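F.,

This is the one I mentioned.
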C-alpha cells in the first residue's frame, strides 16, 4: 500500500494524517493568519477622518490572501508524495488548498474534497482510514 494522506483543514490549523504500511502519523500545522486584520493606529481615531489613515479593504484582503498562501504552502511542503489525498474540513480552506495544490503540484492525486464539521484528532484519523479502506 502506498502512502495515503488525509488533511482536515480550516483557516486556523491543518491536521495531516498519513497512512503507510508501517502505521500512521499525525501532524498538526497551526496557521498564523488573522482572519480579520485590524487597522493600525490609535483607537478610537482622534482628529479628522482621512482616507489615508484606514487601510483599504482590498489591501487588507491581499495581505490575508498572502498569509493564507504561506500557510497552504507549509501544508503542501509537509506532504510526502501521497498515492491518494483526501481534503476535508468545515469551511472554505479545503477548496482554497485544493486550488493551491492544482497550481503548485498538479501531479498529486486528490481523491476527494469533502465538507466536515469540527472534528477531534481521533475522528479525523478514523475518517481517513475509512475513506482509504473502502
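My design for it:
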Amino acid at each position: 500500500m502506498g502512502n495515503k494522506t488525509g488533511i482536515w483543514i480550516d483557516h486556523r490549523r491543518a491536521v495531516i494524517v498519513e497512512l503507510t504500511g508501517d502505521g500512521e502519523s499525525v501532524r498538526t500545522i497551526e496557521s498564523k493568519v488573522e482572519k480579520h486584520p485590524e487597522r493600525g493606529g490609535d483607537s478610537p481615531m482622534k482628529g479628522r477622518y482621512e482616507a489615508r489613515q484606514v487601510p483599504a479593504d482590498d489591501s487588507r484582503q491581499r495581505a490575508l490572501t498572502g498569509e493564507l498562501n504561506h500557510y497552504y504552502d507549509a501544508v503542501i511542503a509537509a506532504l510526502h508524495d501521497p498515492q491518494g489525498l483526501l481534503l476535508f474540513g468545515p469551511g472554505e480552506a479545503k477548496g482554497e488548498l485544493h486550488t493551491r495544490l492544482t497550481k503548485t503540484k498538479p501531479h498529486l492525486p486528490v481523491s476527494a474534497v469533502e465538507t466536515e464539521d469540527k472534528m477531534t484528532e481521533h475522528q479525523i484519523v478514523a475518517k481517513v482510514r475509512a475513506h482509504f479502506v473502502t
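Residues 57-77 form the longest helix (21 residues).

Talk soon.
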